[in-house]
Amino acid sequence: MDTAIEIHAKLRFDVEEQLRVERAAFAAKVRAARAVLGLSQDQFARHIGLTQKSIHRIEQGAVQPKRQTVLKIQGFWAERGISFENLRSGGFRLAVDADVLLRSQDDEAGRRPH
User: Fold this and answer.
1) Global pTM?
2) pLDDT tens-digit profile of 79-99?
3) CATH number of 4-111
């Protein structure tokens, strides 16, 4: 039978592990969405009102962004047709509206020399 101290330690570990998984998932979402939109870290940072260094740290999972920052980033994705479905395992699925994909292709075509 586990003692109260052992139970507390296990719960604390579980919470810390869950937070680590959530931070890693959010970091991966930021990288994925930025890639779909074709934005550099600096460009994305300017849209959100952060520095490039802050985006880098978020993408590395080195920091837990403030709730306000998370909401700004999620709003930015929603406005641009990008959403995520969170999975029970801690992973996620990325959903991108078709017009986002077409816009990305049009942007690329406009940058290529003719």
Assistant:
1) 0.78
2) 999 999 999 888 899 999 998
3) 1.10.260.40
